[in-house]
Amino acid sequence: MKATFAIQPPATATLPVRGSDSLFPIHRVYCVGRNYAAHAIEMGHDPDREDPFFFQKNPDNLVVNGGDFPYPDKSSDVHHEIEMAVALHKGGKNIAVADALDHVWGYGVALDMTRRDLQGQCKKAGRPWEIGKAFEHSAPCSALMPASEIGHPDSGAVWLKVNGEIRQEGDLNQLIWKVPEMIAYLSGLFTLAPGDVILSGTPSGVGPVQRGDVLEGHIEGVGELHTKVT
Fold first, then answer.
1. How confident is the model at residue 189 (pLDDT cuts 50, 70, 90)?
2. Which SUPFAM superfamilies does its entry note (predicted)?
3. Nearest to 112 by CA among 148, 152, 85, 77
């Protein structure tokens, strides 16, 4: 007997590939917390190198092609966090650091938009962060650039402008946990798969956005991101 779906399956979440008609299918979205020392300090935490920690967004939280970011419900304090997206074409478990970059298909520029007030309530109550992090449209992302074209950037300016004014500035070389280390550590916790995307953490300067704000993100050697808060 041929199996059928009880309901229409949801569409596969994808990211565009710059300069191509191809689409990159998304399996899962992992985010690394407090991966820049200056951001750890501004959030009230010790910047010393500890084991990394991760939370997740949902694949369909991605906003692509310069789409708008609708200001979410149930919050009055939504913050921007500019990050590099790392897209995997190969998965595995307990991946060695030396082999980790072989799993990377490409890179992009992303925003980890955060309902900071709801996240703060969750932290205070010792609850998970999903309502602060994994809401609809919470991950605007640029088109991906294949590593076969740009290599594996480990340094380069990272910045975010809001209405033309710099809010966040950093450099990829300031990541506490570098991309190969993130992949290796994460693969010890989960079996990674093709289509997984990792958001690599944000530099200092996170702050609130308002309706009408225009956000422009840039990562040297990777690309740019544009979105408007509506």
1. very high
2. FAH (SSF56529)
3. 85
What are the backbone dihedrals phi and psi of residue 221, each rounded to the nearest 5 degrees, phi first? 85, -5
Q: May I ask the CATH architecture of the domain 14-228? A: Alpha-Beta Complex (3.90)
User: What share of the chain in percent tops pLDDT 90?
Assistant: 90
Pairwise CA distance, residues 16 & 205, whole Å: 28
Q: Say which amino acid occupies 58.
A: N
**pTM exceeding 0.90:** yes
- Percent of the chain topping pLDDT 70: 95
**What is the bridge-based pairing of β-strands 139-140 and 145-146?**
unpaired
Whole-angstrom distance, CA of residue 107 vs CA of residue 154: 11
CA–CA distance, 77 with 29 (Å, rounded to integer): 23
Is 205:82 a contact under the CB 8 Å cutoff? no
For residue 86, give the nearest of 178, 12, 167, 203 by alpha carbon. 178
Residue 48 pLDDT exceeds 80: no
Domain borders along the chain are 14-228
CA distances, 152 to each of 18, 104, 130, 214 (Å): 16, 8, 30, 29
